[in-house]
Amino acid sequence: AQKITQTQPGMFVQEKEAVTLDCTYDTSDQSYGLFWYKQPSSGEMIFLIYQGSYDEQNATEGRYSLNFQKARKSANLVISASQLGDSAMYFCAMREGIRNNDYKLSFGAGTTVTVRA
Amino acid sequence: GAVVSQHPSWVICKSGTSVKIECRSLDFQATTMFWYRQFPKQSLMLMATSNEGSKATYEQGVEKDKFLINHASLTLSTLTVTSAHPEDSSFYICSAYTGRDGEQYFGPGTRLTVT
């Protein structure tokens, strides 16, 4: 079974508007972490935001915020005030087994975001 | 911030030859590094977990005799693709674990083309 599901292969967004990227996850662990990464066409993976399973507040980092709904097992990324430089592929990832010092990440299929001027 | 480098950034080799890719953590020590493979427009697939001073742990379906991983020091892990074939052409990315909150930093990737 897929651990991370990203159902939107591609999205278009108008510059200066907000966009929400969906991510649902599947785990039986109580302690886990959720990550979002950005991968521009150059290929490097850029860390955007992190949410721990026990964090009560939704994580925010500048224009990025994570809408964490634990009961629904979703961790959607919201990018506000989109810029042309936000055009990239975005990956949701999960780390399980935090208490077992297992640091592996499981990645979703990714969502390609294209920002239009 | 934590910086991870990879060398080379791209390489073209002939079928049957071996290629070594280096992954270095430049400003921190990484006891654990990871190697991923990514095909165009697809997700990252974890190949193996590399721990300093011990044998790498390979994911199911990854041939350990073909993809040799060595983590000789706290700042360097290498991936050697042995007897490369065209189907090994891919984007290989490493990441290093910083020891904080499961945060991993990724290298810029190496694009391998086998002709």
Question: How would you summarize the topology of this molecule?
Answer:
The complex is a heterodimer of chains A (117) and B (115).
Chain A: E1 4-5, E2 10-14, E3 19-21, E4 24-25, E5 33-39, E6 46-52, E7 60-61, E8 64-69, E9 74-79, E10 88-95, E11 105-107, E12 111-116
Parallel strand pairs in A: 2-12
Antiparallel strand pairs in A: 1-4, 3-9, 5-6, 5-10, 7-8, 8-9, 10-11, 10-12
Chain B: E1 4-7, E2 10-13, E3 19-25, E4 32-38, E5 44-51, E6 57-58, E7 67-73, E8 76-81, E9 90-97, E10 104-106, E11 110-114
Parallel strand pairs in B: 2-11
Antiparallel strand pairs in B: 1-3, 3-8, 4-5, 4-9, 5-6, 7-8, 9-10, 9-11
Report on this model:
The complex is a heterodimer of chains A (117) and B (115). Chain A is mainly β and 117 residues long. Chain A is built from no helices and twelve strands. Chain A has strands at residues 4-5, 10-14, 19-21, 24-25, 33-39, 46-52, 60-61, 64-69, 74-79, 88-95, 105-107, 111-116. In chain A, the strands form three sheets. In chain A, strands 2, 5, 6, 10, 11 and 12 form a six-stranded mixed beta sheet that branches. In chain A, strands 3-9-8-7 form a four-stranded antiparallel beta sheet, with no helix packed on it. A two-stranded antiparallel sheet of chain A has the order 1-4. The N and C termini of chain A lie far apart (38 Å). The mean pLDDT of chain A is 93. With 115 residues, chain B is an all-beta fold. Chain B has no helices and eleven strands. In chain B, strands 2, 4, 5, 6, 9, 10 and 11 form a seven-stranded mixed beta sheet that branches. In chain B, a hairpin with a 5-residue loop joins strand 4 and strand 5 (44-51). The relative contact order of chain B is 0.33. At the A-B interface, strand 6, strand 10 and strand 11 of A face strand 5, strand 9 and strand 10 of B.
